[in-house]
User: Which sequence fits this backbone?
């Protein structure tokens, strides 16, 4: 596991559109096909990363909570399934079904979506407002495996709370840290 920070795209960056297949339903998911909700959370996650595994139970609770407020969550795995088969579509579907993911879990086989978002690690979070402009990018909270801090989702929650209250998201944001995305050779 290579500890890698997120790249922190500039605030205000428009959300790159994509069309990827949900590994559970088999349906295409695209940002452009629906009216933007109050906020959209794009999460680069995967099955094997200890950083993702560490926060996953809290992430599932947090996403269910904010979905009741109209926030859209989308999980994407961009890891090379040839070298990391546990992160391939079949295993993604099994994980999503077993853990009852409340959001689509998409596979980015070509890695073009990860590149468009400048994703660097898992987990890597991006929040877009109702105009699909980036208002938050970075970490879930300050916990990592082994640092003994509780998993709270505080940083992501504070950004979502600000959006839902009609306030600006504070511009001081910390990068996520996790496993590097497993790029194809």
Assistant:
């Amino acid at each position: 596991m290579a500890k890698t920070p997120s790249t922190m795209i500039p605030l205000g960056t428009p959300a790159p559109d994509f069309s990827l297949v949900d590994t559970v339903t088999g349906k295409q998911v695209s940002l452009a096909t629906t009216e933007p909700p109050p906020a959209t959370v794009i999460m680069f996650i995967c099955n094997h990363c200890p950083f993702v595994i560490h926060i996953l139970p809290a992430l599932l609770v947090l996403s269910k909570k904010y979905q009741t407020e109209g926030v859209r969550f989308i999980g994407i795995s961009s890891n090379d399934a040839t070298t990391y088969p546990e992160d391939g579509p079949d295993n993604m579907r099994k994980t999503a079904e077993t853990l009852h993911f409340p959001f689509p879990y998409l596979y980015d086989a070509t890695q073009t979506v990860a590149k468009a978002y400048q994703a660097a690690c898992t987990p890597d979070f991006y929040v877009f407002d109702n105009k699909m402009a980036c208002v938050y990018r970075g970490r879930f909270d300050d916990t990592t495996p082994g640092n003994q801090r509780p998993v709270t989702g505080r940083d992501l929650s504070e950004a979502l709370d600000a959006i839902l209250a009609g306030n600006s998201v504070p511009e001081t944001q910390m990068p996520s840290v996790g496993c590097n995305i497993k790029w194809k050779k």
In short: The longest strand covers residues 39-44. The CA atoms of residues 10 and 134 lie 8 Å apart. The radius of gyration is 15 Å. Helices lie at 50-67, 89-99, 112-117, 154-164.
